[in-house]
Amino acid sequence: MLRIRRDRQPPSSARFLGSVPPKSILERARSGKATGDRRRPSSNSEVVCIDDPLPTDWRALQTGVCRLLCEVGLTADVDVELRTPRGKVTVDVYAVDENSVDKIRYIVECKNWSRSVPQTVVHSFTRVMQETGANIGFIISKHGLQKGAKQYTRATNLEGLTYDRLQTRYFPIWWRRYFCGRVAEAADVVNAYVEPYKSARAPFLDKLSADKLARYKDLQNRYCAFGTLMWQMDIPSMAPGFNQGPGHPANTPSDIQAFKTLLVRLLNVNASTARCAEEEFRAVFFRPLLEEVCAKLKAIELTFNALFGRNIFGGPDVTGIVEPK
Question: Do 204 and 241 sit in the same domain of this protein?
Answer without folding.
Answer: yes
